[in-house]
Amino acid sequence: MLAYILISCNTGSETTVISELKDMPEIVEINGIWGKYDIFLKISTTDTNKIDQIVQRLRNHPDVTDTYTMHVLYGQGGSIDDD
What is the pTM of this model? Predict the structure, then answer.
């Protein structure tokens, strides 16, 4: 299962939040971004409950103010290298 999560943080806390999250094995990509959201996560796991656990952890983080989770629909697009 693949999901993307956008995160808004308290101003100035982005690097701290990224540091605390980047050791999670399910996170295959994490980047600071500009715009409405501050952090972009790409999550990959075979356990569907794990995404829920990650979102719950994010929502309980004192510096996270908002999250937006997007689950990937398989069979509709994908990598440009996919046949």
Answer: 0.87
Instruction: Domain count for the chain, please give it.
Output: 1
What CATH number does residue 62 fall under? 3.30.70.920
Per-residue pLDDT of the chain (83 residues; tens, 9 = 90+): 899 999 999 999 999 999 999 889 999 999 999 999 999 999 999 998 999 999 999 999 999 999 999 998 877 776 655 54
Flag whether 76 is in a domain. Answer: no
Cβ burial of 46 (10 Å; 0-12, 13-18, 19+) is: exposed
Q: Is beta strand 64-71 parallel, antiparallel or unpaired with respect to 39-44? A: unpaired
Instruction: Say what the alpha-carbon torsion angle 24, 25, 31, 35 is, to the nearest 10 degrees.
Output: -70
Task: Write out the residue range of the structural domain in which residue 17 sits.
Answer: 2-71
